[in-house]
TrEMBL record, chains A, B:
GO molecular function (one): transcription cis-regulatory region binding
InterPro entries the UniProt entry points to: HTH_LacI, LacI/GalR-like_sensor, Lambda_DNA-bd_dom_sf, Peripla_BP_I
UniProt keyword Flavoprotein present: no
Keywords for this protein: DNA-binding, Transcription, Transcription regulation
Name by which UniProt lists this protein: LacI family transcriptional regulator
Domain (HTH lacI-type) ranges: 3-57
Pfam families: LacI (PF00356), Peripla_BP_3 (PF13377)
Domain of life according to the entry: Bacteria
Length: 338, 338
DNA sequence: CTGAAAGCGCTTACAG
DNA sequence: CTGAAAGCGCTTACAG
């Protein structure tokens, strides 16, 4: 069916060894012969079978990517970065959605192990001990993207979540806000939820601001609907707030929607600050000011890092990428208070 | 390194043939032996090497997916559907972003051919003749998702774009709108741009409405910024409009943003209708009424279809999935005109 | 410089 | 029921 090395050998009238040589170390074969082989390859549109090569080299140049859900804007953008890096390094990506479900994760891992991917990138919230066991059982090199592990020594790449939330809160305070509420991730999420909450609280403390966590913090799982509900709750429990810091753009948009619904002007009456800087932040009304993560670069960096460990190169265990405040129109300066 | 069939054979004290048999047709091997082998497999956590099997079966159970850009919400959702279907059928997906760039497409295709993916799914706007040549040169089975080809007989799955646009326009008209503008895709895009424009025009014609295409239709490439600019243009060229039909949710959001900026109330003064029903439609302010495509199901159906052609099963050439009007809050009924 | 041979990890007729 | 052998498509020492 597909043309094989034998077909080329026959056409060029040499042994298959020679064909293999012109493909792998051309300089070692006689010029005229090399030329003849090249022509045969061209003529037959010969493409070496990567399965056969993989069997020999024990490398497939493909990496397995595990994310909760591609259809989420954040993960989609990270995957874009991964594919770009993979492509540049001559690799491919096999994508798997885990839905944060052990069974799905286990199944994917099993198949990836059988297909002999060179390594794994795991992207999600905290690496639970079950996740870790599953991951480790494959024996495959692993890099964490947008998450990390404090219990296990797994290379990872992410933003400094505590500091990012701190900086976001400081910005709000600098704009004159004193009554600030937070739409937080779950404190049980020790990778993003808890540290961001801590960063937020540290900023308020440093500014000498009091804050009743019960009244001023609502929780959600980073999704639009949660942001909407959380905002509704805060609007009642903390009606005097002048600013809300949401820990994802989606939750920020949810807050925007709720406030708009009840007729609160943004940012005139309430300022909203988001987190992530996904593309939707700029599509909000008003365009959402947000603490930006370099999402695609996290993905890009994750595969770079994985390829380094595959090459046995040294690399730092936990890479930290810089976040950046992206100022748009959803936060207003409270001049009156200055 | 990795444990192989030989290790298992040694441990179970049988030949490798027997190991292979218990993995592929267990009923054919003696019960006690089978048991012994199963234990050895378990104990060594043996996973057969998919490369070796692929070499023999000439099947890799992986399919290559080519999309313009995963980070686009529409494609991300389709990919989700594809992965779900692939997983259910025991397949994997190798993802590649083409950026609608011949070079990238060619490179991806080359690698996918070498890795011997079982088939290809191509998702994008029209299949150009160069695209087609590239695709065909791989010799791999192909299915088109959210696009089709009228020149070539390639199995495809999509919505009826002309009818969907027609139905959207009819809805607007039914709500009492008479002065309707359109933010269209490019007419050069013969898969979505042109047919939707035609469907829109047909609806107005059927309703006996006059429309000056020059003044009332603006064009864009489905992105937010284009929707924004197009709306700005329409606002000047056709100030008396009461409704705008945007051919993507992103462009709809762009229109919303522009109108909000210039103080036009939505939907009180202008109604906006989107297309696609991506998740962001529900996150808009106001929530966007839109002509919905079953995006994930298009992806799901595309791999189902591909697997059918791989199995040599018969399947229709062009599958059409139903669209559906999703009513939210961005379109108002013009009572006064009824 | 080049061919024959062994081997990568599996499967499957072919003989027993 | 089961083992030895050939073969999937390649690569690479090993001899010339």
């Amino acid at each position: 069916m597909k043309t094989t090395i034998k077909d080329v050998a026959k056409l060029a009238n040499v042994s298959i060894s020679t064909i293999s040589r012109v493909m792998n170390s051309p300089e070692i074969v006689a010029p005229e012969k090399r030329q003849r082989v090249l022509e045969a390859i061209e003529q037959l549109r010969y493409h070496p079978n990567a399965l056969a090569r993989g069997l020999i080299f024990k490398k497939t140049k493909t990496i397995g990517v595990l994310v909760p859900d591609v259809s989420n804007a954040y993960y989609a953008e990270a995957i874009r970065g991964m594919e770009d890096a993979a492509r540049e390094m001559g690799h491919n990506i096999i994508l798997s959605n885990t839905d944060k479900n052990k069974k799905r994760l286990g199944d994917s891992l099993q198949v990836m192990a059988e297909k002999r991917v060179d390594g794994l990138i795991f992207m999600s919230e905290p690496v639970s001990s079950e996740d870790y066991e599953l991951l480790r059982a494959t024996g495959l090199p692993l890099v964490l993207a947008a998450t990390h592990s404090l219990e296990y020594d797994i290379p990872s790449i992410k933003v400094n979540d505590e500091q990012a939330a701190y900086d976001g809160a400081v910005y709000l305070i600098g704009q004159g806000h004193r009554r600030i509420a937070m739409i937080s991730g779950r404190p049980a999420d020790t990778v993003a939820g808890l540290p961001r909450l801590q960063g937020f609280l540290r900023a308020l403390r440093d500014a000498g601001l009091e804050l009743d966590v019960e009244r001023c913090v609502a929780y959600g799982d980073y999704r639009f609907e949660h942001g909407y509900e959380a905002m509704k709750r805060l609007h009642r429990s903390y009606p005097e707030l002048t600013a809300v810091f949401a820990m994802s753009d989606e939750m920020g948009l949810g807050a925007l929607s709720y406030l708009h619904e009840v007729g609160v002007k943004i940012p005139a009456e309430v300022s909203v600050l988001g987190f992530d800087n996904t593309r939707m932040a700029s599509m909000a009304i008003p365009p959402l000011t947000t603490v930006g993560q370099p999402i695609a670069r996290i993905g890009y960096g994750a595969v770079q890092k994985l390829l380094k460990v595959l090459d046995g190169e040294a690399c730092e265990l936990r890479t930290e990428l810089a976040h950046e405040l992206v100022v748009r129109d959803s936060v207003i300066a409270l001049i009156s208070q200055q």
